[in-house]
Amino acid sequence: MTVESNETSTQIFKLNSSAIKKIAKILVHNDLDPRNLIQILQELQDEFHYLPEVIISYIAKELKISEHRIFGVATFYSQFKFIEPGEHIIRVCMGTACHVMGSQSLLDKLSRELKIISGETTKDGLFSLESVYCLGCCALAPVMIIDDAVFGNMTAAKVNRTLKKYRKQNAENSGRNKK
Ligand code: FES
Predict the structure, then answer these.
(1) Does 170 lie in the same domain as 92?
(2) Is 93 in the pocket of ligand 1 (CB under 6 A)?
(3) Using CB atoms within 10 A as the burial measure, which of 5, 14, 27, 105 is most buried?
Protein backbone atom coordinates (compact mmCIF):
# COMPACT_ATOMS: atom_id res chain seq x y z
CA MET A 1 0.00 0.00 0.00
CA THR A 2 1.30 3.45 -0.79
CA VAL A 3 0.30 6.35 1.35
CA GLU A 4 1.15 9.96 0.60
CA SER A 5 3.07 11.13 3.62
CA ASN A 6 3.19 14.81 2.73
CA GLU A 7 1.11 15.57 5.84
CA THR A 8 3.92 14.47 8.11
CA SER A 9 4.93 16.79 10.91
CA THR A 10 7.73 19.09 9.82
CA GLN A 11 8.34 20.98 13.03
CA ILE A 12 12.01 21.74 13.53
CA PHE A 13 13.56 21.26 16.95
CA LYS A 14 15.30 24.40 18.23
CA LEU A 15 18.61 23.79 19.92
CA ASN A 16 18.42 26.84 22.17
CA SER A 17 20.46 27.57 25.30
CA SER A 18 17.92 25.87 27.58
CA ALA A 19 18.08 22.67 25.49
CA ILE A 20 21.89 22.80 25.43
CA LYS A 21 21.95 23.13 29.22
CA LYS A 22 19.72 20.06 29.61
CA ILE A 23 21.84 18.05 27.16
CA ALA A 24 25.07 19.07 28.91
CA LYS A 25 23.63 17.96 32.24
CA ILE A 26 22.78 14.52 30.83
CA LEU A 27 26.22 14.17 29.22
CA VAL A 28 28.05 15.15 32.40
CA HIS A 29 25.84 12.85 34.45
CA ASN A 30 27.04 10.06 32.14
CA ASP A 31 30.71 11.12 32.41
CA LEU A 32 30.79 12.21 28.73
CA ASP A 33 31.57 8.57 28.08
CA PRO A 34 30.50 7.05 24.73
CA ARG A 35 30.25 3.69 26.51
CA ASN A 36 27.14 5.13 28.20
CA LEU A 37 25.55 5.99 24.86
CA ILE A 38 22.34 3.98 25.34
CA GLN A 39 21.76 5.50 28.77
CA ILE A 40 22.46 8.97 27.34
CA LEU A 41 19.98 8.43 24.51
CA GLN A 42 17.36 7.17 26.96
CA GLU A 43 17.77 10.21 29.19
CA LEU A 44 17.67 12.55 26.20
CA GLN A 45 14.48 10.94 24.96
CA ASP A 46 12.92 11.17 28.43
CA GLU A 47 13.76 14.86 28.46
CA PHE A 48 12.77 15.80 24.88
CA HIS A 49 10.29 12.96 24.08
CA TYR A 50 12.26 12.08 20.93
CA LEU A 51 15.76 12.37 19.47
CA PRO A 52 15.90 15.24 16.98
CA GLU A 53 18.72 15.14 14.43
CA VAL A 54 20.28 18.34 15.83
CA ILE A 55 20.67 16.68 19.22
CA ILE A 56 22.34 13.66 17.65
CA SER A 57 24.80 15.97 15.84
CA TYR A 58 25.44 17.92 19.01
CA ILE A 59 26.18 14.91 21.21
CA ALA A 60 28.32 13.35 18.46
CA LYS A 61 30.66 16.35 18.72
CA GLU A 62 30.59 16.34 22.52
CA LEU A 63 31.27 12.60 22.77
CA LYS A 64 33.77 12.73 19.88
CA ILE A 65 32.08 9.92 17.99
CA SER A 66 30.39 9.88 14.59
CA GLU A 67 26.69 10.60 14.08
CA HIS A 68 26.64 7.43 12.05
CA ARG A 69 27.64 5.41 15.13
CA ILE A 70 24.93 7.06 17.24
CA PHE A 71 22.24 6.43 14.63
CA GLY A 72 23.50 2.85 14.30
CA VAL A 73 22.96 2.27 18.02
CA ALA A 74 19.71 4.24 18.27
CA THR A 75 18.00 2.58 15.31
CA PHE A 76 18.80 -0.84 16.74
CA TYR A 77 16.46 -0.18 19.66
CA SER A 78 12.83 0.35 18.75
CA GLN A 79 12.16 2.56 21.79
CA PHE A 80 14.10 5.45 20.27
CA LYS A 81 12.08 7.92 18.21
CA PHE A 82 13.46 10.39 15.70
CA ILE A 83 10.22 12.22 14.92
CA GLU A 84 8.38 14.37 17.39
CA PRO A 85 5.46 12.33 18.75
CA GLY A 86 1.95 13.66 18.27
CA GLU A 87 -0.40 14.63 21.05
CA HIS A 88 -2.03 11.19 20.81
CA ILE A 89 -0.10 8.03 20.03
CA ILE A 90 -2.08 5.38 18.19
CA ARG A 91 -0.60 1.90 18.46
CA VAL A 92 -2.00 -0.88 16.31
CA CYS A 93 -1.21 -4.41 17.38
CA MET A 94 0.27 -6.53 14.60
CA GLY A 95 0.79 -9.60 16.80
CA THR A 96 -0.43 -12.98 15.54
CA ALA A 97 -3.93 -12.93 17.08
CA CYS A 98 -4.58 -9.39 15.90
CA HIS A 99 -3.08 -10.05 12.47
CA VAL A 100 -5.40 -13.02 11.98
CA MET A 101 -8.35 -10.83 12.95
CA GLY A 102 -7.50 -8.14 10.40
CA SER A 103 -5.17 -5.64 12.04
CA GLN A 104 -3.45 -4.94 8.70
CA SER A 105 -6.64 -3.45 7.25
CA LEU A 106 -7.04 -1.47 10.45
CA LEU A 107 -3.54 -0.05 10.06
CA ASP A 108 -4.16 0.67 6.36
CA LYS A 109 -7.38 2.48 7.19
CA LEU A 110 -5.62 4.61 9.83
CA SER A 111 -2.83 5.39 7.36
CA ARG A 112 -5.33 6.55 4.77
CA GLU A 113 -7.34 8.62 7.23
CA LEU A 114 -4.32 10.27 8.86
CA LYS A 115 -2.26 10.47 5.63
CA ILE A 116 0.80 9.07 7.41
CA ILE A 117 2.43 5.69 7.67
CA SER A 118 3.50 3.86 10.81
CA GLY A 119 6.28 5.80 12.55
CA GLU A 120 5.04 9.21 11.39
CA THR A 121 3.15 12.11 12.96
CA THR A 122 0.36 14.10 11.33
CA LYS A 123 1.15 17.64 10.19
CA ASP A 124 -1.17 19.11 12.82
CA GLY A 125 0.79 17.20 15.49
CA LEU A 126 -2.36 15.53 16.76
CA PHE A 127 -1.63 11.86 16.05
CA SER A 128 1.36 9.57 15.72
CA LEU A 129 0.89 6.10 14.32
CA GLU A 130 2.86 3.04 15.40
CA SER A 131 2.59 -0.69 14.88
CA VAL A 132 3.48 -2.87 17.85
CA TYR A 133 3.57 -6.57 18.64
CA CYS A 134 1.10 -7.97 21.16
CA LEU A 135 -0.41 -5.61 23.66
CA GLY A 136 -1.25 -8.50 25.97
CA CYS A 137 -5.02 -8.50 25.40
CA CYS A 138 -5.30 -10.94 22.49
CA ALA A 139 -8.89 -11.91 23.42
CA LEU A 140 -9.90 -8.44 22.19
CA ALA A 141 -8.18 -8.81 18.81
CA PRO A 142 -7.78 -6.80 16.74
CA VAL A 143 -6.64 -4.21 19.24
CA MET A 144 -5.41 -0.66 19.02
CA ILE A 145 -4.61 1.72 21.83
CA ILE A 146 -4.70 5.48 21.83
CA ASP A 147 -2.48 6.77 24.64
CA ASP A 148 -3.74 4.55 27.52
CA ALA A 149 -7.21 3.75 26.16
CA VAL A 150 -7.68 0.24 24.75
CA PHE A 151 -9.97 -0.26 21.73
CA GLY A 152 -10.76 -3.95 21.29
CA ASN A 153 -12.55 -5.76 18.44
CA MET A 154 -11.67 -2.82 16.23
CA THR A 155 -12.82 -2.58 12.67
CA ALA A 156 -11.87 -0.19 9.92
CA ALA A 157 -15.44 1.13 10.17
CA LYS A 158 -14.94 2.16 13.80
CA VAL A 159 -11.76 4.09 12.96
CA ASN A 160 -13.51 7.24 11.67
CA ARG A 161 -15.76 7.45 14.71
CA THR A 162 -12.82 7.08 17.08
CA LEU A 163 -10.63 9.66 15.31
CA LYS A 164 -13.58 12.05 15.15
CA LYS A 165 -14.00 11.78 18.93
CA TYR A 166 -10.35 12.68 19.55
CA ARG A 167 -10.41 15.53 17.03
CA LYS A 168 -13.55 16.91 18.63
CA GLN A 169 -12.01 16.70 22.11
CA ASN A 170 -8.93 18.48 20.87
CA ALA A 171 -10.95 21.25 19.20
CA GLU A 172 -12.95 21.72 22.41
CA ASN A 173 -9.78 21.86 24.52
CA SER A 174 -8.08 24.37 22.25
CA GLY A 175 -11.30 26.47 22.19
CA ARG A 176 -11.32 26.42 25.99
CA ASN A 177 -7.64 27.42 26.15
CA LYS A 178 -8.29 30.44 23.90
CA LYS A 179 -10.95 31.79 26.29
S1 FES B 1 -1.66 -10.23 19.42
FE2 FES B 1 -2.65 -8.32 19.60
S3 FES B 1 -2.98 -8.12 21.71
FE4 FES B 1 -1.91 -9.97 21.54
Answers:
(1) yes
(2) yes
(3) 27
